[in-house]
């Protein structure tokens, strides 16, 4: 029966090609626009760490003592002292310290200009906690962290730039005026959103290279504008040691806690720590320690922009207008088929048969509309990639789930909006149509 | 107009198709006026003056080298060298640049330790008004005697400061000129004297509500990272940028972190707004095309269906013009109904948007001109099918179906 209805639907297309073409086009336009904006928004609000986003937390300790009431808000950064004091608790499975500097990099064996690069400063756990894939070598070990060794990990892109994509492990890179030894090269790797750093870079590529945080500290590499730095209290002295000892909040700390028990234990630990500090005169405002998991962090920091949410709503309304339009065409189409319906009814088809026949016809139209819409959405995404050229291109790519849901959505909405026209068509009285034949 | 009653009767009888059209027009109107409102809000934002000479200026972010107590001397060397360049009109060191998206936020308070207003903090030297091209509208300009040179974070000193008019208005709402001479407290709770008021200077974050709330402090921060704001002689910007870079690079170990014109900076600062604007225009165009086609299609369909009826009317003496008017009027009724519903819907959507996204509500002129535009679109779309209807021959009435 189903294949018979499909056949009937195809015959019907041939009979009214313009009308059918317009219906397909309308559905395709609406679906194309909706899926374009939805893809961008969906890819933006993805879970960056699906395997453990509920177990990775941002450690936020509001150590300010400026006498203000800061309400619910807290900062994503903590002081260097507090970071040093809490990372030896042994409770979390991993600690990841995040900061950044910028520098000039070049391959010392090449006669080229040094290139200004962004440097992520972190620790060995970064590579294990985020499970980064390696093309060559590996991350540095804890020994390197402890001794603040001059080791460096490159992204695939910077390895291509400085070493033409060769295995560079063991070779040296000139970092400012000193040499750092390459220990690993990452394979293609992108967290989306890249939540661990500053919010303005959530949809851009990882920094060019990675070095140990302790090496940054040892070499007194001052943080520039790649990190947020809140200095609410002035400090004596102007050297790097004074900066480290200051109340400036500039270090981001992430921890991985295996389960709720560990989480509670860790919360209690940092609360106890803050209380001790308060007893010594720090944390004067209040004790406000938060462990914010990745999903909550994305919400708190407003990583997904209002604009992209708004775009989805606008395109959904556009889809509805297209479908209303299409519905008018369906009415016209079925109206023209009253004679056929009358005949089919007269020779024994029930109302249900008529409903089934037209539903299949609309589903076929919806499916074709979905296919064309998918193609239009690819164009739309290509335009979006151009429009949002400051965002990472992978945001503008559909995955299989999105492709399938596009088709499903197209079929579903065309049938939903077809309910009324189908119902009206099924009411056709056989006698009224047969009279004039 | 005597056609009106039969038109309404037919529409009520037909129910479904005109209802669809009404709904479609309503949604199109609702989305369109809101989208246009957002577009104009964005373009207004982008058109706001930064307050500085946009066409002739650029900035350089670079490093100073040496022990911290020697950095002040390094800064002087740079400034002397840059100010001597023939294409350069003026140079000032700045702790942050308007619209750069990086800077120092500060509290601006009338009494210590009380949140009054947030703004951005700029540390500069006495030449700032002249170099940036700011418009000093009250009080006095900064002088050399006001200026301190510090390694970093001069926010901890008590100084004479300049504020923007927006800050002055908020400090002294009745008469903003009274703000001159007032004592204000910044984040560190040190008293600062307001020496003068400048008309506008935008802060580092263009999308922040506090973009106009800025404090300018005469502190030269001689730190290992500095920014030079350079204003070139009129028309010589690109030349000046080349000369400045060349002069700076004479120092060994010099790192140029950034070198950007203010025009580029502004262009980049609003890139997401521009992208969204284009998207909004796309949605509006799509809606207009689809709705126009929809009206056209419906009209053709109904003309085709009513051929005999039209023929009969023509045979009974209706003129071509009368037939055409009938269809135009029918569309007018449908459009107006849709627009009235759309009007209400647009207001409620605008209400939602202003609540969730902090947009300003759609102003009445937009709503009215949007209605007019869609009405005209409807009449245009229906005109061709109506013309065809008027060409139906009266003889058709005599033929059997």
The major sheet of chain B is characterized as: 7 strands, mixed
Terminal CA distance of chain A: 27 Å
Shape of chain A: elongated
User: Helical amount among residues of chain B, as a percent range?
Assistant: 40-55%
Beta strands of chain A, count: 11
Strand content of chain B: 15-25%
Task: Using a beta-carbon cutoff below 8 angstroms, give the protein chain pair with the largest interface and the number of residues from each chain.
Answer: A-B, 50 and 53 residues
Give the quaternary arrangement of the chains: heterodimer
Q: Main beta sheet of chain A, described?
A: 6 strands, mixed, barrel
Average pLDDT, all residues of chain A:
89
- Number of strand elements of chain B: 13
Tell me the structural class of chain B.
Answer: alpha+beta
Q: What would the principal axes of the Cα set say about the shape of chain B? A: elongated
Strand order of the largest sheet of chain A: 3-4-9-6-8-7
Strand content of chain A: 15-25%
* Helix proportion range of chain A: 40-55%
What is the typical, i.e. mean, pLDDT of chain B? 89
Count the helices of chain B. How many?
Answer: 11
Estimated structural class of chain A: alpha+beta
* Whole-number total of structural domains of chain A: 3
- Ranges of chain A with pLDDT <50 over ≥5 residues? none
InterPro entries (chain A): ABC3_permease_C, MacB_PCD, Macrolide_Exporter_MacB
Subcellular location (chain A): Cell membrane
Protein name (chain A): ABC transporter permease
Pfam families (chain A): FtsX, MacB_PCD
